[in-house]
Amino acid sequence: MIQGLCEELGQIEYIFSDKTGTLTRNLMEFFKCSIGGISYGCGITEIERGIAQRDGLKIHEEQRSAGAIIEKGFNFDDPRLMRGAWRNEPNPDLCKEFFRCLAICHTVLPEGDESPEKIFYQAASPDEAALVTAAKNFGFFFYRRTPTTVYVRESHTEQMGKIKDVSYEILNVLEFNSTRKRQSVVCRFPDGRLVLYCKGADTVIFERLAESVDDVRKVTREHLEHFGSSGLRTLCLAYKDLNPEAYESWNEKFIQAKSALRDREKKLDEIAELIEKDLILIGSTAIEDKLQEGVPNCIETLSRAGIKIWVLTGDKMETAINIAYACNLINNEMKQFIISSETDAIREAEERGDQVEIARVIKDEVNKELKKSLEEAQQYLQTVAGPKLALVIDGKCLMYALDPTLRITLLSLSLNCTSVVCCRVSPLQKAQVTSLVRKGAKKITLSIGDGANDVSMIQAAHVGVGISGMEGMQAVMASDFAIAQFRFLTDLLLVHGRWSYLRICKVVMYFFYKNLTFTLTQFWFTFRTGFSGQRFYDDWFQSLYNVFFTALPVIVLGLFEKDVSASLSKRYPELYREGIRNSFFKWRVVAVWASSAVYQSLVCYLFVTASAFDGKNSSGKMFGLWDVSTMVFTCLVIAVNLRILLMSNSITRWHHITVLGSILAWLVFAFVYCGIMTPRDRNENVYFVIYVLMSTFYFYFTLLLVPVVALLADFIYQGVERWFFTYDYQIVQEIHRHEPDSCNADQLEIANELSPEEARSYAISQLPRELSKHTGFAFDSPGYESFFASQLGIYAPQKAWDVARRASMRSRPKAPKKK
């Protein structure tokens, strides 16, 4: 299994990636919001700067207000909502509901002192922590939770500057899951008021709004599109006042569903649908999650390597598109096919509210868009200089596109695209898309994610990679490989993946070659014996051929083989395409190795048998069967072991030790085995054979001639191949043939990636050292480090003990010698 994983690492053609925590840092900051149709928040996001740079525009940075608060999870700047100023807004009651929804509708646990400065929020996701932190800074400080109560310290609610502690009784929690895409809380105010607070994705919240909020819905939708185009993660907030009698009736059904032994989750979702309707829209939140370091360069490098990257995210389409632009997944030169459920026809069907009609309209629209996009894509691909293609599709359309009647069209269109972005998708849809490419297209796939919602996607791919981030270790535990950041995929695939694929291919081919060569020599012998069953080699020779005499060199090959260094592998990512094409394990390669085995077996067998036909040993007797077979076996062991040096791109001292050691192991074994015979042994056939052979000139001449002739064809073939049928890595080898050693080059590259301070520390650590000759001190001799540093132009500050030692070593006046 491990061998298969390592081999597949060098053949990955499709990467399926989550966005949050995988491409981004998963460090959420509350940045903007919309309340009652009014947008709040100033500032420019990292994505907006990237968009302006892409369009050639200049952005003027806005100065932050004097009282702006900067805290982990909170980067909001708008005086209209801070320090109770929201009371002067057009909708102060709606602002109050907005802040209460943030402070109550969550599952966060407070830790530490119950003060705004010292409290710490333990949340299931960074989003929730950021929202609760925002509520605290807006004056609604959540500081304590019990199983049934949430305590909030509210400021400026009744009058400016007044603070009071309010306890809200939590009656029901309708938890978030990938299907619902929302979370709701039913709470009772101290005055007995019953309220349902709900937060979730805009697509599910808008479906459950009352008809009286159409104006606010329209404006909020525009704000959401603006937030999404700025690369922000959005959530919609809504509430509903509940009638006590209606709530009691609903609560009985909820308790029954909660205590059900079968289909509990399904029944809870159905009961939640009964109360999560006719909601009043409060507004929306916008949270910024910045890109990880090195993501754009990593994606660009992987694209040059021939790898196609798909991003599967739960964010809005606008957010996903702009993140894709920021990380070089999509650019202006690409032709984009956008399949969205935000069309006029679908909106009209949703406004009518007939679910059957909505499903029919969406499916028809998706079918029409898929066929239209596929026709355009095929036309672009027929042109010589056609643009690269990108597909963007949202989760609602994807649900119908994955239908058996449409999935073939979706697969055909997707495979023609360089990049694919799927928005508002559930974990199940992530796994379905991955399986579609793996099973439908028969391509090698890799999935990478950081959270529990990515586990199904990770397990659906050939290779799963987990990122140990902010969302726990579920993804890491379910994956095959674990890394810290997305950019390390470059090293994992382009360096270690390539090397592993190359090593496994060579090891498999070498095993095939050496065993076929060994077997064919016995096969040629059967023609002389008339297929009588006479064995050619001694039993111990056959048993130990693979165990001792040819085992170690191939192990060293599998451990140390590399065609180019790690730095060159990343410098020329196009080398990875050889693995995607499976260049080193095609039938042509197998045929070449088989031909080599046939040729070498014929040389070893025919040269020895033909020359030994009239050969005589030192006593004048003719060579017998066991003399000839031992001679053939000796030539075979030498040729097969030396062949591994011809196929190696990097030869280390371990290659020399194992090759020479394997040959010597055979000779030592032959000396011992042929020199011992007891009445119980059956080795009288080969007794003293090696001593008889080594007493003749024929043995040494054959020992030099046969392996050379056997390997000559391989030598010529490799020369012709390198000159006229060159692999890509051989071209790179020739370009950098006269450069410094690859190991030093890798160290230089590492040093260049360090910060100035780290580079100086690294350079100081590489300085030569000299042991102290001054007794009484356990440190370096004074001045040595500073001296060597100054010679290399590196600033190395003096150490305290150097100064002390110089003071102790000051020259003293010599005492006059006594005469």
Describe the structure.
- It is found in: Membrane.
- The chain is of the alpha/beta class and 819 residues long.
- Helices cover 50% and strands 14% of the residues.
- It is built from 32 helices and 19 strands.
- Strands 3-2-12-11-10-9-8-7-6 form a nine-stranded antiparallel beta sheet, sandwiched between helices. It has an eight-stranded parallel beta sheet with strand order 14-15-16-13-1-17-18-19, with helices on both faces.
- A hairpin with a 7-residue loop joins strand 7 (149-155) and strand 8.
- The chain is elongated, with a radius of gyration of 37 Å.
- Mean pLDDT is 84; it is low at 742-751, 769-789 and 800-812.
Nutshell version of this structure?
With 819 residues, this protein is α/β, with parallel strands linked by helices. The chain is 50% helix and 14% strand.
List the topology elements:
Layout: H1 2-9, E1 14-17, E2 29-35, E3 38-40, H2 46-55, H3 92-104, E4 109-111, E5 120-122, H4 126-137, E6 140-145, E7 149-155, E8 163-174, E9 182-188, E10 194-200, H5 202-206, H6 214-229, E11 233-241, H7 244-258, H8 264-275, E12 280-288, H9 295-304, E13 308-312, H10 317-326, E14 335-339, H11 344-352, H12 355-382, E15 389-394, H13 395-401, H14 407-415, E16 419-423, H15 427-440, E17 445-449, H16 455-460, E18 463-467, H17 474-478, E19 481-483, H18 489-529, H19 539-549, H20 552-560, H21 566-571, H22 577-580, H23 587-611, H24 625-647, H25 653-674, H26 689-694, H27 697-724, H28 728-735, H29 742-753, H30 756-765, H31 784-791, H32 800-808
Parallel strand pairs: 1-13, 1-17, 13-16, 14-15, 15-16, 17-18, 18-19
Antiparallel strand pairs: 2-3, 2-12, 4-5, 6-7, 7-8, 8-9, 9-10, 10-11, 11-12
Keywords: ATP-binding, Magnesium, Membrane, Metal-binding, Nucleotide-binding, Translocase, Transmembrane, Transmembrane helix
Subcellular location: Membrane
Organism: Brassica carinata (Ethiopian mustard)
